[in-house]
Amino acid sequence: MLRDLLSEETLRKVLAAYQADQDKDPAYLQRLAQAQSGRDLQWFFDDWVYHDRGLPDFRVESAYPRQASQGNYLVTVTSKISPRPGRETPVTVRFDGGETTSASKFAAGPKGSSASPRQDHRQKLP
Fold first, then answer.
1. What is the rounded CA–CA span in Å between residue 118 and residue 36?
2. Residue 33: alpha-carbon gap to chain centroid
3. Most buried by CB count within 10 Å: which residue of 11, 50, 79, 122?
4. What is the SS3 assignment for 88?
């Protein structure tokens, strides 16, 4: 899960920087991951390491594309998750001629929505 969040390359850097003799408190790995990625990962470690609630039940309740302007579309995805950890979820939009994926961060709570702008001048989304 951390690999998906950070990327294979960044996780390799984290593991290469790991020094067992320096691992004296629970936040050691978190600090390494944050230093290598340049991202605040407190929400991830709170929800998945320090207060592990097990694997969540995740489902998409709805996905709505709507035309914005100049060939752009706004795709809104509403998801439901139980238990309620915060998470970063990849959202992939497929269309004739390709696909695009972006990571959308959802705050802790039973439902989350993410709006992702997309541009495709060749094909309108259904």
1. 29
2. 15
3. 79
4. strand
User: What does the angle CA 10 – CA 13 – CA 19 come to, to the nearest 5 degrees?
Assistant: 140
Q: 3-state DSSP call for residue 47?
A: helix
**pTM of the full structure:** 0.51
Q: What are the residues whose beta carbons fall under 8 Å from the beta carbon of 52, sequence distance 6 or more?
A: none
Helix axes 8-17, 28-37, angle to 10 degrees: 130
What is the CA angle 47-2-78, rounded to 5? 60
Residue that has been written with the tokens 């600090």 in this structure: 31
Strand partners, 77: 63, 114
Token pair listed for 107: 């705050």
SS3 115: strand
Name the residue with tokens 């950070």: 6
Per-residue pLDDT reduced to its tens digit, 9-23: 999 999 999 999 999
